[in-house]
Amino acid sequence: MPFYLSHKDITTIKADVIVNAANTSLRRGGGVCGAIFEKAGREKMEEACRKLSPIQTGEAVATPAFDLPARYVIHTAGPVWKGKEGEKELLYRCYEESLFLAEKLKAKSIAFPLISSGIYGCPKAVAEAVAKKAIFDFLAKRDMKVTLVLFGQKKRTRITEAIQSFLEWNCGAGMKEEASLMLADMAPEPMGAPPVRGPAKGFALQLEDPFQKVLFHYIDAEGKTDAEVYKEANIDRRLFSKIRTRVDYTPKKKTILALAVALHLDVEETEELLESAGYSLSRSREMDMIVRWYMEHGIYDIYEINETLLDFGENQLGS
């Protein structure tokens, strides 16, 4: 873990490995393949590929990345799409073989294009579904940062249209609300014992309780293991270990929101978790309001949330 989507040019992504949607002869092609050859250094990449050619559909081989901001390029040949039986399995194998090869190369990060979705004719929705299935199956048992590049591909769905209306309705009002809150914050606080927060899944939490204590109260209440939480939160295992072992550590807001999604917290509980780290769920920030919309509708699929955040130009949740 984690998994991210991107609209960037894959040749500009900094990862240990980038994947080339190659042809079986490993010759320079058009689209993503042509761009990778050009950016890597055409003659050097052609020479490296010549030594490995040909490959079978679904197979993956590796070359140095040369002038690209990566260590290796993995070349995999996707199926030419004709809608026949077995094509999805071959496409799945492209991702699977590439991920296993990246693991052998001791890569910690890899970036994929949407294989077979260009001139090879696979419908983008099918190509994306197969890609995610293969990547999630791999990440269920292993740790690696995986990026799937949907270059220039933004979705307009009923959900994004509903969220757009939600943002237009709420964000303007939120600015006024925040101004009121700022004025309220300037008022002197009453003396006495610090107030108790609302019930955190059955736990009474004091206002001064640190983020780590509040978080692990919620985790214990859900009965989840550490691995379940950091995987469902799209968080790297090492970052989660830091959160668990360092009481003074405060992660970024997008990481805390990811944890709230993984724990299926409602809006009030999420606000409580954010407050313990010195943050708030703001009506003037699109990222906050998008996450709020999903929580209010009981949708806790972090990858769906991240795809929407990407389409709105916001940071994705996780590490």
Beta-strand content bin = 5-15%
- In DSSP terms (H or I, runs of 4 or more residues), the helix count works out at 12
Helix/strand structural class: alpha/beta
Report the mean per-residue pLDDT as an integer.
88
Question: How is the largest sheet built, in terms of strand order?
Answer: 1-6-5-2-4-3
Largest sheet: 6 strands, mixed
Report the uncertain regions. Answer: 174-197
Q: How do the SSEs run, as a string of H and E?
A: EEHHEEHEHEHHHHHHHH
Envelope shape: elongated
Count of all domains: 2
User: How many runs of DSSP E, i.e. beta strands?
Assistant: 6
User: End-to-end span in angstroms?
Assistant: 9 Å
Evaluate the radius of gyration: 23 Å
- The share of residues in helices is 40-55%
In short:
It is built from twelve helices and six strands. It is of the alpha/beta class and 319 residues long. It has two domains: 3-149, Leucine Aminopeptidase, subunit E, domain 1, CATH 3.40.220; 158-311, no CATH class.
Structure, described:
The protein is an alpha/beta fold and 319 residues long. It has twelve helices and six strands. The chain has helices spanning 31-40, 42-50, 87-104, 124-139, 158-185, 211-222, 226-232, 237-245, 253-262, 267-276, 286-296, 302-311; strands at 3-6, 17-22, 60-64, 72-77, 109-112, 145-149. Strands 1-6-5-2-4-3 form a six-stranded mixed beta sheet, sandwiched between helices. Strand 5 (109-112), helix 4 and strand 6 (145-149) form a beta-alpha-beta unit.
